[in-house]
Amino acid sequence: MKQNKALKFETLAVHAGERPDPASGASSPPIVQSTSFVFRDTDQAANVFTLKEKGFIYSRLTNPTVSALEEKLAALEGGMGATCTASGLAANMLMASTMMVAGDDFVASRKLYGGSMGQFRDSFSRAFGWKCNFVDPTQPDNFKKAITEKTKFIFVESLSNPEGFITDIEPIARIAEGAGIPLVVDNTSATPYLCRPLEYGASIITHSTTKYLSGFGNAMGGSVVDGGSFNWMKRKDRYPALCGDTHGYRGIVFARDFADAPFAVHNHAVGLRDLGMQQQPMNAYLTILGLETLHLRMEAHSRNALKVAEFLEGHKHVAWVSYAGLKDHPCYKMGQKYMRGGMCSSLFSFGVRGGFDAAVRLVESVKIFKHLANLGDAKSLIIHPASTTHSQLTDDQKIAAGCGPDVIRISVGIENPEDLIADLEQALGAARAQAA
After folding, report:
1. What domains lie within the chain, and their CATH numbers?
2. What's the rounded mean pLDDT across residues 134-160?
């Protein structure tokens, strides 16, 4: 289905990227579990290999089921193209490899998912010679101060994991534009239903599709969405992969020859070809199904999260609650600006009185909340980041990322909120009793 910009989000979530199967008429996208695809003739084969004609060659590069998901994601974000990957961290890798060479650097918010922080700090520098300059995102000017001649992009999360910090995207996008570099926004926790970073000046969007987009904890994946607005050719000396001749595609300059979505085309033709982190068709199919209910789930997630956060805020065993939907939260105004209807998703953190030991006891005492390392499921989830997702950070880095020893991260699901509140009430009581 060709994107119709007049269609509303809910309609696009159901229909974008989906067409009746030409062979059977099936209305649900088929799971094309095939490694490769038969060509009509040698001319068509040659044209597809040289990017003169669209078509399917090998599922590492493109696959019909994955392509349907990519079209849907691009439509929902308001972008021009997308590339799906095996995971969210694979999406980071694909995105960065398209822009950077050894010796380059980039600037990133210090309030990030622990996996991204570890990847940026350790693996990127060790394996590829890419340096990440982490900054405090509460003051946008910090990003400007950290930019060097070697800086290739700025990276932030729209809604940070696990703290729930909402980034002031617009001024950071202006800083990136002034420096001639793109702003990359990880929109995993907010989703395009609640936040549309491209509308505030971002150039590229990344996702862990494993989370809210899939929605049911059954499909790993990531994505990179090309906003189509960044003028790569204006900075052609800075981005040789996009603006120079590419080995293997003689004479093609991606930013010139695929001007609408050069980043997305390059990510398929070169990135997936050489790095091989493609998403699997079955996972893409499950994510397509999940996206059809994204708008319904995000409304329920946000509504329930606010009720749970209000309960925790008034609880005597809770020291603090960091949920941007609460009116006294420092990010409340940012939530009203960037999040649809002020809804702030379902991911947030809170501090338990009694520190590390009390936090661990709480996690071990819940009955409805599931103790696992994911977020964005229809089910409510809970974890203690300091001992799990962010355990590889130093104590100072944990605190800077919003996951000190007392911190609990929850992802509120779509169950009845009264049941969730009762579960947390009994768990807080049990944790306190054990500490006494």
Report:
1. 9-290 (3.40.640.10), 296-435 (3.90.1150.10)
2. 97
DSSP letter at 381 equals E
Pick the more confident residue, 387 or 351. 351
C-alpha 324/C-alpha 243 separation (Å) is 41
Cα angle 304, 344, 157 (rounded to 5 degrees) comes to 135
90, containing H or E segment? helix 88-99
User: pLDDT per residue over 86-95, tens digit each?
Assistant: 999 999 999 9
Q: How far does CA 210 lie from the centroid of its chain?
A: 9
**What value does the mean pLDDT take over residues 298-318?**
97
Which tokens in the block code for residue 429? 């009581």
* pLDDT attached to residue 2: 46
Long-range (24+ apart) CB contacts under 8 A made by 18-22 are 18/68, 18/72, 18/288, 19/68
3-state secondary structure of 101: coil
DSSP result, 212-256: TTT-SS----EEEEE-S---SGGGTTT-HHHHS-BTTBTT--HHH
- The burial class, CB within 10 Å (0-12 / 13-18 / 19+), for 156 is buried
**CA 241, CA 104: separation in Å to the nearest integer?**
14
312-321 confidence digits (pLDDT tens): 999 999 999 9
pLDDT at 101 over 60: yes
Locus of tokens 């319904």: 296
Question: What are the respective helix, strand and coil percentages of the chain, to the nearest 5?
Answer: 45, 15, 45
> Hey, what are 135's tokens?
């900054």
Q: Which residue has the tokens 């822009």?
A: 99
* Average of per-residue pLDDT across 4-25: 90
- Per-residue pLDDT tens for 156-173? 999 998 889 999 999 999
